[in-house]
């Protein structure tokens, strides 16, 4: 075989020097830079997705706790700290069949309208719960039908 003095070619078509180094060094460095950026971006995307997953999980858990706490505080008889204590209300102007005043316990706030069925008839009477304290220590439930 004869002397071959022509430039050698790399597998990518770049002309190489005597030791096989690339004469077009920018292409090799560019490839290394591209590989390095690819590794960094790939790692960053994984961390970004992991962070988003953690954020979404925390948001869902806190939202569920908030909803559960709201339900617990408004439920009658719930043991939560935000529930109202039960008050005893006296239904003004109403008597039981035995002649005693009618009292009922409720944790509903003042201003709530309740319906009480009269035991002697099929008639129903509406009462509004108030913050007025009577002499026996109960709260007044005023009849609404009297004022109409």
Automatic annotation (TrEMBL):
Stretches the record annotates as Disordered: 1-28, 66-85
Transmembrane helix listed as a keyword: yes
Membrane spanning residue stretches: 40-62
UniProt keyword terms in alphabetical order: Membrane, Transmembrane, Transmembrane helix
Protein name in the entry: Uncharacterized protein
């Amino acid at each position: 075989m004869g002397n071959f003095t022509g430039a050698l070619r790399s597998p990518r078509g770049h002309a190489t020097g005597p030791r096989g180094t690339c004469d077009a060094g920018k292409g090799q460095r560019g490839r290394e830079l591209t590989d390095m950026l690819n590794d960094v971006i790939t790692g960053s995307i994984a961390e970004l997705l992991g962070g988003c997953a953690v954020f979404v999980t925390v948001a869902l858990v806190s939202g569920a706790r908030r909803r559960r706490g709201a339900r617990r505080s408004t439920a009658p008889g719930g043991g939560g700290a935000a529930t109202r204590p039960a008050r005893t209300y006296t239904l003004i102007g109403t008597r039981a069949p035995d002649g005693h005043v009618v009292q009922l316990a409720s944790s509903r706030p003042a201003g709530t309208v309740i319906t009480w069925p009269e035991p002697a008839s099929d008639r129903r009477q509406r009462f509004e719960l108030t913050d007025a304290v009577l002499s026996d220590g109960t709260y007044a439930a005023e009849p609404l039908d009297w004022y109409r």
